[in-house]
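worker-03 picked up job from queue 'complexes'. Input manifest follows; two sequence lines, order preserved.
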Amino acid sequence: MTLDMGFDALKNAYANTELTPEQVMADIRQRANSYSDYNIWLHLLSKAEQAPWLDALAQKDPATHPLWGIPFAIKDNIDLAGIPTTAGCEAFAYTPEASAQVVQQLIDAGAIPVGKTALDQFATGLNGTRSTIGPCHNAFNPGYISGGSSSGSAVALALGLCSFSLGTDTAGSGRVPACFNNLIGLKPSRGLLSASGLVPACRSLDCISIFAFNTDDANQALAAAEGFDPSDDYSSANPFGNQARHYGKRAGPLTIGIIPQSQLQFFGDDDYQQAYAETLEALASEGVNLVEIDYAPFAEAAKLLYEGPWVAERYLATQPLIDDNPEAIFPVVREIIAPGGAPRATDLFTAEYRLNGLKRACQAQIASVDCLLTPTAGRLFTIEEMLDKPIKRNSELGYYTNFMNLADLASIAVPTQFTPAGLPFGITLVGQAFSDRALLSIANHIQALFPLNKGTLPYPTKPSNTAPTANPNTIDVLVCG
Amino acid sequence: MTLDMGFDALKNAYANTELTPEQVMADIRQRANSYSDYNIWLHLLSKAEQAPWLDALAQKDPATHPLWGIPFAIKDNIDLAGIPTTAGCEAFAYTPEASAQVVQQLIDAGAIPVGKTALDQFATGLNGTRSTIGPCHNAFNPGYISGGSSSGSAVALALGLCSFSLGTDTAGSGRVPACFNNLIGLKPSRGLLSASGLVPACRSLDCISIFAFNTDDANQALAAAEGFDPSDDYSSANPFGNQARHYGKRAGPLTIGIIPQSQLQFFGDDDYQQAYAETLEALASEGVNLVEIDYAPFAEAAKLLYEGPWVAERYLATQPLIDDNPEAIFPVVREIIAPGGAPRATDLFTAEYRLNGLKRACQAQIASVDCLLTPTAGRLFTIEEMLDKPIKRNSELGYYTNFMNLADLASIAVPTQFTPAGLPFGITLVGQAFSDRALLSIANHIQALFPLNKGTLPYPTKPSNTAPTANPNTIDVLVCG
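worker-03 finished. Artifact:
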């Protein structure tokens, strides 16, 4: 029987000497073989490649290394020292000398890399089919897409081949695959996780993201991964009210903004439409106050990402390859990126002016509620459907996600239920920049209301953190006298 | 003899019934006639045009209207209801129905508009010669440039034709003319003053600015003018630590960053070089701690403004005129703006990436000191010199100013002395965004160390505010029990 790969389960097993990290890694490698048809890995680490990190655990005290022996997967556009980074494109590959700051911090905290995972090439896509090794398959039904671009990282976790994983999220790549594979998908505030050692998609917008089984694990991984990086010009210091201790059990009434019926889109997926309605009903019956907001500015901002001049950033990120050797790029990815050289600076300024207004409108809506809630995606396509209309359907996948980084918001995808066909469905919570811990606390509350298992594993996800959250709006004042 | 036009002097004269606002306005109009050769005004308001605002003063209590009867001039790229806005270009002119938010707030506080002032067309220039009515002349020597682009607003104030004035400042237009005319030139933090009703130069960077005789007056005008504007997408709320009450008399040691000798540029102006050296000597002898910083990132950011893709914003702001009727635009301004349609979005993203790094480098330097101090300009050119090399010399005028808004900094130009030729010289203080009141307080201190007169008037400028500043790093805690 597959191990329970949750943080607490592994930590307990290590503490009780029921398991060693070496045994867990051997088990993962063995099980990974049986999932080779899923097209998850671009590079699964060998025992020899893992040995230095496993050996180093002997010098680390589990009490002071919160991720001691916890296995994690790394999307293959994030550097792991000594292992090729391909971004899903062989012609682009290079072997980094150093790991990305985020990866290094996780390793320093005791986490063990399992491998580099498949992605929509250059993180351009939300579907998981734009991979040279073949489409990545959904963990629950291989006929369906995994979601992307962080496809391998999501499916690896859902199948229990790691305990958390790193994705990236520019347009929704860290949330859509979470939804489709019954996982938490945390898209942190821009700048909270360093982007040093990340192959850019849109450098001004990219975020490294975290997949986890529950919000407790996501908060722990985030705490180890976050931190200001002076070498990343887009890195930000984490403000006081967003520290790890502000995650916990949320008390008090909860008011959540939802999208009016007229602005919802399910693109023909009746099961998802039904699942969303049921999720809202369940929340309302649990006393959550649901209030309608205006989704128009969010939808307009979302359109800017692919229809506007931001594709110029993708063009820059693939130069000189896109100019010198375009045939090396996956056809549909090339088709999207190649026009990125054309827009004018005037187009970009015009779009930035508009975005500034939309951003303010979005933030004003969010300021009126504890968070916004959307379906994470409107439809879960089969691989066949996806390949039939790869650009149109990808755009549909981003209807609820593309605005997030343009509007500088934080968000977290939370699984809530399964469709009658046995496919996962989930919602996304959206908050202001640096509301990550507030969102995680709400997600914790919601995850407790919708008891599900960890990915495809037969173990419940229910978060265990019962400490009340610190109030981010107060500071501690000590009065002596 | 010309009236003392400082706020306190006029307020006292009004309170003692020695003068009425009507008398002051009549006096200004009469004196303005004698300065018609200076090319200051594009529209000097008639008695009839001023009457509604003067009449409205009868309903306003001076005790609750801090600018009661205070005359001010408005750069002609800022809207005054019912009066044409030309931006210095007849073909561009329109007559706004409403005043700019900043203008309206000043009027609401009791201030009285005097007229619309000449500028380098479309605020494109730092010299004051790019005007269809002829070069604006320096208030101290008409053979010299006034500085620009807010030329008329500075010269009007220096000659006592108002008590403060509004300029705009994208590249240095609110500071260079302050330096050349013995005035305070406050370039507020981006977003602190609403840009509603402002003709854009570079919309993402433009700031309305304030010319005043001293920092007390500048702080009062700023307090009346500032305020969040939901209709301006670039408007910001003013944070707690930057409110008007945080301006005052600065206590404690002062550490100021200065530019190393090797990075200073005076472009052949030995008098300015000497004046700058004397200013630093005087500061050091007064106990100010002067420490060298690295000016390289500031200088590189400054170059981006005109040599990089930001000129695309100027192109956008003059469309469709620049396309349909380019002959209507002042030749050298056209020469600068016309290429703005060419840069690509990729060029802009590349420049934004670089700017992000430079911005961080600049801010890190500033964080290590109380503020940075630079010469406001390296050289004061004659009009003849300026017209001889209008683009090269304009670029030289911006050496110490062009980086300011790109790096999102606040700044204030402070006059410190006169050259042997009787021309004004001054320095600029630079701080983080929303350090306006901290900078004003340092400027207050410096102005007291360099006693000068108000513009060309025979009245001393010494600021009178002796209240200690509130500490912006503390909050008030009330303990009951």
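worker-03 released lock.
Chain A touches chain B through 28 residues (CB under 8 Å).
The first strand of chain A starts at residue 41 and ends at 44.
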